[in-house]
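To: structure desk
From: M.T.
Subject: fold request, one chain
Message: Could you run this one when you get a chance? Sequence is below, nothing fancy, just the single chain.
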Amino acid sequence: RLLRRILEYIRLQELTVLEDINKQVSKEMMWRWIGHFLRMSKGRWPRRAMQ
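Reply: Done. C-alpha cells follow.
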C-alpha cells in the first residue's frame, strides 16, 4: 500500500513537471511567433502602433 502511494505521488509530480514544461514551451513559442510577426509587419505599421 505504501509503495502504491509513493508511485501515485511520483506520477503526480511527473504530471506537474510536464505541465510546467508545457507552459514554458508554449510561452517561448508564443514569444517567438510574436517576434516573427513583428519582424514581418514592422515596415507596414506606423510608429505610433509600435509603441
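Reply (cont.): The chain has a mean pLDDT of 82. Let me know if you need anything else for the meeting.
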